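Reviewer has doubts. Consider these tokens.
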Amino acid sequence: MTNHQLHLLCENWVKWCQTRKFFAPGPTKNVLAKMQPAKVREPPNARLSADLSRFNSAIGTLIELGTPGAECFVKFYCDRVKNIKSQAAKLGIHRDTFYDRKTRFARKAWLLALTLEHAQNKQAQNKQANLTDFED
């Protein structure tokens, strides 16, 4: 996967994350908000994607593990920081290093997502084999 394709995957992931709220809206803030009439509009068209779901799991796992580059990735894709040079200075790194860490983290997440996909496929094959053995 090229860096450009990886960037597009991350951008699609950001859009995918924004649609997750359509499945379970958050709680209302206060009692007065509950008394307001609901806005009637067309239901949103949230994209369902097993690949993006696995990518999301991989990103969450790597962030929890404290993988280097996680902060750069989050600042760039989630926080949408505009001034990368000042963010890099706050981290004590050069702007190019910021982009390199962001890309390396994204690549690690993508590889972990591929590993998760392989494991899920293997589990499904084993489950299918067990079902056919049971039927015989």
Summary: The helical segments are 3-19, 31-35, 50-64, 70-78, 84-91, 95-135. The chain has six helices and no strands.
